[in-house]
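Internal ticket #5521
Category: modeling
Description: The requester needs a full-assembly model to guide mutagenesis choices. All entity lines are attached below as received. Residue total reported by intake: 645.
Assigned to: D.W.
Attached entities:
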Amino acid sequence: MEQTAPRLLEVKDLKTYFHTQKGDAKAVDGVSFSLNAGEALGLVGESGCGKTTAALSICRLLPANGYIADGEILVDGVDYCKLNDKEILPHRWKDVSMIFQGAMNAFNPVKTVGWQIAEAIMLHDGLDKKAAMERAGDLLELVEVPRDRVRHYPHEFSGGMKQRAMISMALACNPKLIIGDEPTTALDVMVQAQILNLLERLRREIHMGMILITHDLSILGETCDKIAVMYAGRIAETGSVDDIFRHAAHPYTQKLISCFPDISKRKEIPDGIPGFPPNLIAPPKGCRFAPRCEFSCDKCREVDPFMRRLSDSHSVACHLEVEK
Amino acid sequence: MNSMLTVKDLKVYFSVKSGAFGRAKTVRAVDGVTFDIGRGEILSLVGESGSGKTTTGKAILRLVPQTAGAVTFNGEAVSLNNSRLHEFRRKAQMIYQDPFQALNPRHFILDIVAEPLDVNGLAKGKEAREERVMEALKNAGLQPPEDYLYRYPYELSGGQRQRVAIASSLILHPEFVVADEPVSMLDASIRTGIIKLMLQQRNENGIAYLFITHDLSLAWLISDRIAIMYLGKIMEIGSADQIIHDARHPYAKALLKIMPQPGVQRQGERDVLQGDIPSAAMDIRGCKFASRCPMAQDICRQQPPVEKEVEPGHKVLCHFA
């Protein structure tokens, strides 16, 4: 696993907690993963599993009550956890940028799209207005939006075009790593396919690293090199697309996969997963999935499973030796 | 087949004005839709946003006015005649997409679920009312039901809320339910529970569903038949397997090609249709799909296609089917 090539991103034992009235909610509680340049990682899990929090931690964009309690986030060797709010600024957008969920509604309706992109460029690259507008046009072309659209207002764009413009904005300062937080969730299937095509093309052409966060497991297989399945603030299993879809070792992964209909298989209504994710303020002892797991034994309820390596690419946090 | 609900040439037009001085335009949200649903059958209506699937569902229930067309239910025309409509609405219910908005935040679950009873004056006495609500909650998988009666929607999770919405829709024992994307806002693991609940109601009580969704693979999994809608028209209708494994319409084929298959790495780019879905206010002479169709010929732009039955029960609206 340990190659000599420098990792683009290395997250080590990240713990991100939120202050709440009832105590700290451990939204991300000891998560590690890494990414090489040009690689795409899919982060999948249900709502509340901490996938967005992990992404916000990397960009250091946590809300006021959130804080990184422990861990390291190394981007090209720089530990983002050690930087203060001012020191992070030059890295944000230039090294790491993010496409948010429902981002197409994040445009300011009374300013032209081109100006909003140019503004980010002027701020970070120090270009003058004319050059920045020129670059905004280039960026729109890169995401297959006609150049003359720089003068248009957001309401003149369709939903898919707005989302593409948002992606172009995230690319404004040539980031090495782009994080897409459910970038296609609010979009129609045809537009979703368009955006995925675009992200894949950009990844190939610009050779940037990509983290794709989604609850839709089915699109990850198509787009990513590796997948990390999150559950209740932890990573349950990581592996290549093949590892996850054909040799899923964690009962949660197996259940989650079965929830997505596959037209090449027999029609079978999946069982779903009974119960609810645990309370993250006081998570259960032992494995966090144990209360919902049909295979759980005494050990699962007592001892926290550690990440166990099954192969070079495949690791699982589960006591059981289950293989489909 | 003994069809319970037939929809014939249903049209819903809206008149919209753009700007203070703009001329009124006619938006053809639903433009001649014909299908039928048998007892206990599930028909999925699949299409992109703006294709008119929700409007179709609402127009059948008379929640939006029909411009033209006829809906018959159990052999009788659904008219605007007050008592008839009342009876129809008791037997035909709707489940909405967003369980966070569909429930009144200031009402107890008890009152939300009991509302159809109250409106129809069916609950006699406090105890009988509570009993019926508990039965409905139990049928919707909320156990034990008495735990939920005096709680507010905010105390429940998304999946539980959707179950409450379903309990409320099913409390009158309807025969037909329009389910408008009932699971698209829910997590995958919660989703199957809701789907199972709906199927169980179908199997036990013979409820028929018009299941509105944009998710083809889900439609395939749960429905008997699938109708693919585009710009207010049904482009192709057939059994779930006919549509998924033997689609004939270029639009249905295009949707199938971009459908992600779990665990299959895609070779090359997805074949994306060019352009956007045209505005429903546009006057289209020929085939509605012609502007985006990769196989469009002159005839497609000039003449509207006629529906062809390519196999028993499998109908396609295309010149080249």
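Resolution: model delivered.
Comment from assignee: Chain A touches chain B through 44 residues (CB under 8 Å).
Ticket closed.
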